[in-house]
Amino acid sequence: MVTIDLAEISVRKANELIWKQGADGDDVEVINPDARHHIGVGLTSPITVKIRGSAGYFCAGLTDQAHFEVDNNVGWGLGDNMYVGSVVVAGNAGAIAGVAIRGAELVIRGNMGSRAGQVMKAGTLCCAGNANFMAGYMMYGGRIIILGDSGERLGEDMTGGEIFLGGRLQDLGSDAEVTDTADEEIESIREFLDRYKISFEGTFQKVVNAGKKLRYSTSEEQMRSIPFFSFSGDSSYWNPKIQEDIHVKSQIGRYRIRGYGGARSLPHLSDLAFKRDLSSAGDDVDVASKVEMYTEIGSKNGANPLKLSMPVMIAPMSYGALSRSTKQAIGIASSLSRIAENTGEGGMSDAQRDAADQLIFQCLGGRLGWNIHDMLRADGLEIYISQGAKPGLGGQLMAKKVTPELAAIRGIPAGIDLRSPSRHPDILGADDLIIKIEEFREATGYRLPVSVKLGAGRVRDDIKIAVKDGFDFIELDGMQGSTGAGSAEVIDYVGIPTLAAIIEAEEALAEIGRRDDIEIILMGGIRDGVDAVKGLCLGADAVAFGTSVIIAGGCIACMQCHVGQCVTGIATQDPKHEERYHIHVEAQNIHRFLESVRWQIASITQGLGHTDVRQLSRDDLVAVTPDAAAITGLPYAPEFRENRVPEVVKAS
Amino acid sequence: MCGIAGIMFKKADLDLQTGQALIDMLDGCQHRGPDSTGFALYGDAKSGQLRLRFFVGEDTEATEAIQRIQATLADQGADVVEDQVIGNNYRVTVNFDGDVRKFSYRMEHVAKVISIGSSLEIIKDVGSAHDVDDRYDVHCFRGTHGIGHVRLATESDVKPEASHPFWATGFTDVAIVHNGQITNYWKMRRRLEQRDFQFSTDNDSELVAVYLADKLSQSASLKEALASSIDDLDGTFSFLVSTRDEIGYAKDRLAAKPMIMFENDNLISIASEEVSLNRLFPGQALNTKEPPPGTYNTWSRSI
After folding, report:
1. Which of A9, A212, B89, B177 has the most CB atoms less than 10 A away?
2. Strands A312-314 and A542-545, sheet pairing
């Protein structure tokens, strides 16, 4: 056993030593911890780490197989996302002990803070003392044992798992109920307590999910087939869209869920035009090799950057909303075009990892599919705060798509209408976020860029926080972004248009003089290379394509993504439907689309008189509508309307 | 968005290095707020005297501000006992026995007041705890108690006057440090403004200070004022309040913001994170307590 003295070295150095000891199979003792954060984060070896004193936030977080013993207290987020392994804490634990654990055994001999076991999936969280406010909040599985009193709102909005309470039940949370215990459950608890040498003679009450909120009381109807193009018609009253909306509501008696993007006309990049005559742009067939487009993203704080052959990425879309085959095809296309793909919510499949050369791994509030092993094989990490189609709300995945296989990856019960939490358990402010980012960097040895996905809402404030908290880049998603499932009113009426979002973001960074400290990836309704170039002109470092990539790969825009019976095999988890999707054919289709984007970016950049995409600027643009001029501050020049769709697009 | 810390010593025979203790505690949680740092410190009070601190800026701007302040002090019947310029601060001690609230509001219109108190002085500026100490010698400060704050500016600018702690504008010796967000800010502010209270910022922490000071002025105890604050204020909050003789805390019912405390025979210390408390006791395992949601408490100076 080696001894590491935190009075002498930093936690970052200490963690590197702990990983090395882990690789060698030697136990570690940590002295003078003095409640420092992130001790042991990222360890994936079966060694024992003894912490002689108190540990701070995220002690033993993002680990697998290791055993931790803490002589005194721990701060927030004990054992965050821990797989197999154990932690024994002699003192008290702060808030969200056992957050998102996936099999670990955590024992707290003292009391534990609020929201213990939030979004946990499997394993045991045992507290010999009293629990606090909302223990078991939004837990999906596993077991919480509380030998003392419960605190307020026990089991608030729990989905699965069990809570065994030895002390007084103060009150139950929403959708939780007391039920009978089985003899074998009590035996199993006794065996657990004996193993950790905890004596307890009392009896237990068992609290489980009452099942009233797991599913919508009515299921979503398949709507009549109205192509998006008529669905989004300009007439705002009693058009086919409104009629269908009312018809569906008359059947289900609640708000509607649907997939795809908003169908209102909003100010967008198409309301801008290029200042120069681009009629001869695109004449040069070798233009893509003559314009410098290679872009590195994510190295602002010393991480290994994503290396993009053009300033383009794939927007985050989940395996879950999309089929495994679709994610695989997108991954292959991203590799062929030498850009980066993104997992979206819900985990990383082997197929997806193998297909994409560069893959960003996304972490959401429900921690669905999030784990240390996939973090270590990712090329970038991303904290999702919200998305443009439904800012401020969590994702929805309807029961039809929550198959046993998908549920296992996400660590949730199969067959529920999954409404993902809209908040992270451990990010309740910009201050907590700093500590969370640090945890990710600690766990992955500071190798990977850490980004934030922001749905455009309070862009000005959010962007400032993002740069101050030290993110490497921002994926800024405007209101024209799509979703696999969202409530219809939110998709159409909530959010900030992509055009306004990028302007606010640039202004915010200029106000605090920090533009050079972070990169912005703009997304939300980017349809082609023309939109891409306009986004770059307005200041984005790169743009991301979501819906357009899906369409390139066979989507027919029928807007039934939420139903789970996608006829093209894209937005489904049903093997019969997925069979129709030909991975390699669609991968080539998506790749060809991305290459058309490359050609458009190159042609327009050259047509504007530049040799490098970094020379693009606001000076290349004018606004052709009064709204767009007001939003962007660009000169209003309606005479340029013809230039909105340059010849280069028509040619392609 | 920030970290908070507070300390009160219980015994006079200790070398009451309150300034240094707060510097150490705030340095421990500086990661929560790197933009600015501030201290509310309580020294000896002399009967009939008030100490005022102002931000006056530099050079000509400072000279003009000081002239305005001195003229207004004379106009208000406050006799200057001593004064000095420290960095961008003007610190002046006056003899004054009039209506403090009216006097405070008048001074607010003349220059940027940092604090007015018989024993309270607030020192705050952009930069880290050590940066601010380098400028204002916070470590030299001896006293029974004080509170401090590190700030991550999210919705307003990084300016000295936007940093914390805030004093309760119009009331001597009440200061606040707060982590969180008061969501019924405007409603509560309008209520107080209807009763002729004035606010010098749009910051929700100033509101909490004025709210509590108003209760105290209506002869509520600090405990009673804190109890009603949990009912009246909406949002997420963990805050520390200090007066000439007491410190206290209140925590919202959602427990969304951290707070942890350690108490022994010599002192009570409270902070956002245990790492700050451990700065006072390096290498020791502390028997700390986390206040439950929706609770408050106070401690009084016995020396």
Report:
1. B177
2. parallel
Radius of gyration over alpha carbons of chain B, in Å?
18
Q: What is the mean pLDDT of chain B?
A: 92
Mean local confidence (pLDDT), A119-139: 97
Interface of B with A (CB under 8 A): 1-3, 31-35, 152-155, 158, 179-181, 236, 253-258, 260, 272-275, 277-279, 282-290, 292-293
Do the Cβ atoms of A346 and A406 come closer than 8 Å? Answer: yes
- Residues A461/A464/A465/A470 CA torsion (nearest 10 deg): 170
**Residue A470 amino acid letter:** G
Q: Which contiguous run of DSSP H or E holds residue B228? A: helix B222-232
Residue A52's identity, in one-letter code, is R
For residue A625, the SS3 value is coil
Q: How many whole angstroms separate alpha carbon A131 and alpha carbon A155?
A: 11
SS3 string, A14-29, reads HHHHHHHHHHHCCCEE
Active-site residue, B29 included: no
How large a percentage of chain A has pLDDT more than 90?
Answer: 81
Q: What residue spans of A196-317 are helical by DSSP H?
A: 228-231, 240-252, 287-290
Q: Could you tell me if A140 and A117 are in contact, meaning their C-beta atoms sit under 8 angstroms apart?
A: no
Map residue A594 onto helix, strand or coil.
helix
**What ipTM was reported for this prediction?**
0.86
Phi, psi (rounded to 5 degrees) for B301:
-75, 130
Mean pLDDT in residue range A205-228: 82
Residue of A nearest to B33 (CA): A431
- For every residue of A95-141, DSSP letters joined together read TTTTTT-EEEEEEESS-B-TTTTTT--EEEEEESS---TTTTTT--S
Closest among A537, A384, A376 to A466, alpha carbons compared: A384
Show Cβ contacts of residue B141 under 8 Å, excluding neighbours closer than 6 positions.
B18, B19, B39, B41, B43
pLDDT at A651 over 60: no
Q: For A259-268, b where at least 16 C-beta lie within 10 A, e where not — what string?
A: bbbbbeebbb
C-alpha to C-alpha distances, A48 to A67, A81, A475, nearest whole angstrom: 5, 18, 39
How far is residue A456's CA from residue A441's CA, in Å, rounded to a whole number?
26
The reply to whether residue A114 touches residue B255, judged by beta carbons under 8 angstroms, is yes
| d(C-alpha A404, C-alpha A421), whole Å | 20
Mean pLDDT over A470-475 rounds to 97
B180: chain A residues, CB-CB within 8 Å:
429
Top-confidence residue, A120 or A233? A120
Distance CA A67, CA A31 (A): 16
Per-residue model confidence as pLDDT tens digits over A57-77: 999 999 999 999 999 999 999
Q: How far apart are the first and last CA of chain B?
A: 34
